[in-house]
Specification:
The protein has 696 residues and is an alpha+beta fold. The chain has four domains: 4-51 and 677-695; 67-304 and 624-652, tricorn interacting facor f3 domain (Immunoglobulin-like); 311-332 and 518-604; 344-513, Rossmann fold. It is 26% helix and 33% strand. It has twelve helices and 37 strands. Strands 3, 4, 6, 7, 11, 15, 17, 18 and 19 form a nine-stranded mixed β-sheet that branches. Helix 8 (479-488) links the parallel strand 28 (467-473) and strand 29 (493-496). The longest helix has 36 residues, at 16-51. The chain starts with a helix and ends with a helix.
């Protein structure tokens, strides 16, 4: 290395004139860059000052649009027994002077079966029909070009959908009405219903890829990647609550509960609600009227003590076929005193910033308190990389637990969500489980990823003898990931809505993890060749019911269910099918689970085979799938040929409590970026002047 004297001598040998010319060139280039930067930032800043309080989004040419379409929703929910049917009305109001095409990507429950779509425009009401997805897109594009009003609904994920609306007239509204059904969850002695209204922006792993020329504009913030080929379809822009018009992104909710048994109480960990009773029926509405669409609405109701369901059978006939739904709640078993190897995995990625990481830390600390002497444990955390407290699981003792608590308290959120690494690491030691130990993995996350199917594949391939339990964190977790990761992991899932909800929720989860009620569950029906779903039946944990739906079985005879208790003894119970009561929507519930089963087999069957089987089920049961779309088209052109059509992406609200500001778009423009660039440019000019004076 040269000494300072040698460097000084070398500089003195350089020609001062050449140095000056070099610095002049650098200065000119810096001045040019400054002009470009300040021009762009000044334009953005002035735009914000003039039009604050309205939406501003870019179209496919990158041009600003103003003002945006306003969105409102209305949920009318009817709960009958174990099935909830929802009529969701989304109203889009075009306040501009231009004809609009709107694209809105939004969440629905992870087990939602969408079975109807209607478009209302003025006095016209157009019923939607199921069509093959590519054909629906072509017909929609043709109607759009011809000036006809049209609505199209696509499923992007089991819990993520996109509405396309063509030719919304200036100053007018179009309403899209969806009808869907979902099973009501029954766990821990209470029923639960979840209505998602927004979503946490998802991490898209992989190398960015160019958007195919044939791809229609969806205005997502993400590009397709090598691991998430449809990233542009599942990445709606997320805006803060204060960035939207006060009359937009609000929802009215009415839930009519007819549970078939007396209801003792109704509560919600997400919103303040009130119920009006009429016999055994309860009508529930939010106390504040319309709610802000920035979190899931979670509703729970508990039956009167002593009226908890132990068994139920429902029957429906559809197109000449019988469908049965059977629910059985096995008696509780005593906890078995067996040692566990418990692996806690904590998501510390950027989407968990804010209230979510605080909830996650609190949940993990609670889990550490459930460990007992004789158990083994470890703590992993992941964002862009995966790290662990210990190289391998260690024994439970005061020292190791103290280190773990300190480790968890110091975790902060930031970086990407490379979940595959964390799952691989967490499931990596299943072949090293000490004899007599039961290995359980507790995965604490918001599930904000776009490559769910690849992650489910990791779980299926590497699970071994472990059990995977997922804990959903935040006001809008990805429930598709939570449920299916636990399903493939032969475990269970739960969610934490807010900090006050943690103790009760996790106490139930960790208590039932101590011993499953039944394993190796089998069912035998009077009709020998029926196909009950789900199949195979997952292990049952404490407070969880056994639920199966079957096609081709009349309401007669007995169904026999059997399984293995934790102590190895056999359990068996028969259920009289003749006691079935009338049910609705059972055929769709069966078709939805059948489609789920077919999609699980995509690794062993060709895509064309799965597509045909799923499409046939979709058409027969009028059920939306990844291969089909609902389409409603008005036959009368509305938009004059002389009028142009402007594209617009309608955003979702940033989930309450989150700090995923890097995905907010468009950001409210201020002078801060401009001042930052000016400061950096000033430093560069100062450096140039110093060098000129020093060596000139």
């Amino acid at each position: 290395m040269q000494s300072r004297a040698a460097v000084s001598t070398s500089l003195q040998l350089l020609c001062p004139a050449r140095i000056i010319r070099f610095m002049e060139g650098v200065s000119l280039w810096l001045a040019f860059l400054l002009m470009l930067s300040t021009h762009s930032l000044m334009a953005d800043a002035s735009e914000a000052e003039v039009t604050g309080g309205q939406f501003h989004f870019v179209d496919q040419q990158g041009a600003w649009q103003e003002p945006a379409t306003l969105l409102n929703a209305d949920y009318q929910v009817t709960v009958s027994g174990l099935i909830a049917t929802t009529r969701l009305r989304q109203t889009f109001r075009n306040t501009s002077q231009q004809w609009r095409e709107g694209v809105f990507t939004f969440p629905l429950p992870e087990q939602a079966g969408v079975h109807a779509l209607t478009m209302e425009a003025g006095e016209r009401r157009i019923e939607g029909r199921i069509a093959e997805r590519q054909q629906a897109r072509q017909r929609y594009e043709k109607a759009k070009e011809e000036g006809r009003q049209a609505a199209r609904l696509d499923q992007q994920r089991p819990n993520l959908f996109s509405t396309h609306l063509a030719n919304i007239p200036p100053g007018e509204s179009i309403t899209v009405e969806l009808q869907y059904q979902q099973p009501v969850q029954y766990r821990y002695g209470e029923f639960e219903l979840r209505l998602p209204t927004t979503l946490t922006p998802r991490y898209m792993p992989g190398v960015p890829l160019p958007v195919p020329e044939s791809e229609e504009w969806l205005a997502g913030w993400a590009l397709p990647t090598s691991q998430v080929s449809d990233a542009q379809r599942i990445s709606p822009f997320t805006v803060a609550r204060g960035d939207v018009h006060p009359d937009s992104h609000r929802a009215s909710v009415n839930v009519d509960i007819d549970a078939g048994l007396p209801v003792a109480s109704v509560s919600s960990p997400s919103h303040r609600v009130s119920g009006i009773r009429d016999g055994d029926r309860v009508t529930v509405t939010p106390d504040n009227g319309r709610i802000v669409m920035d979190r899931d609405l979670v509703l729970r109701w508990r039956p009167v003590r002593g009226q908890e369901p132990s068994a139920a059978v429902f029957h429906e006939q559809f197109q000449g076929e019988d469908y049965l739904l059977a629910m059985l709640v096995p008696g509780l078993s005593q906890n078995r005193d067996f040692p566990r190897e418990l692996i806690f995995v904590l998501d510390s990625s950027g989407s968990m910033a804010g209230e979510s990481i605080r909830q996650a830390r609190q949940a993990l600390l609670y889990g550490l308190e459930t460990l007992r002497p004789g158990d083994r444990f470890n703590v992993l955390q992941f964002n862009s990389q995966t790290g662990s407290l210990y190289p391998r699981p260690v024994a439970v003792n005061a020292h190791n637990l103290s280190r773990a608590r300190q480790y968890v308290r110091e975790v902060t959120a930031g970086g990407g969500t490379e979940m595959a690494q964390a799952l691989t690491r967490a499931l990596d030691h299943q072949n090293q489980i000490p004899g007599g130990f039961v290995r359980q993995v507790v995965f604490i996350t918001d599930g904000a990823v776009g490559n769910e199917e690849a992650l489910f594949g990791v779980i299926r391939r590497q699970l071994g003898d472990s059990r995977l339990f997922t804990v959903g964190i935040g006001s809008a977790p990805n429930m598709h990931f939570m449920r299916d990761a636990a399903r493939h992991g032969r475990g269970s899932y739960t969610t934490v809505q807010d900090s006050s909800d943690i103790a009760g929720t996790l106490e139930s989860l960790f208590r039932k993890m101590q011993a499953p009620v039944l394993a190796d569950i089998r069912s035998r029906w009077p009709v020998a060749d029926v196909q009950p779903l789900p199949e195979p039946v997952p292990d049952l944990f404490r407070s969880e019911p056994l639920v199966q739906v079957v096609r081709g079985q009349p309401a007669e005879g007995d169904a026999v269910f059997s399984g293995t208790r934790p102590d190895g003894s056999r359990w068996s119970r028969s259920l009289a099918l003749g006691s079935a009561v009338a049910g609705t929507g059972l055929h769709r519930l069966w078709a939805k689970q059948r489609i789920e089963r077919l999609e699980d087999r995509r690794e062993s069957q060709s895509e064309d085979t799965v597509r045909k089987l799923v499409t046939d089920l979709s058409v027969k049961h009028q059920l939306l799938t990844p291969y089909t779309s609902f389409l409603a088209i008005d036959q009368t052109p509305r938009r004059p040929a002389s009028e142009s059509l402007t594209d617009e992406a309608i955003p979702v609200l940033q989930p309450a409590g989150s700090k995923a500001s890097m995905l907010r778009y468009p950001r409210t423009a201020t002078l801060s970026p401009l001042l930052l660039v000016l400061g950096l440019m000033s430093l560069m000019f100062t450096l140039c002047l110093y060098l000129l004076r020093r060596f000139g």
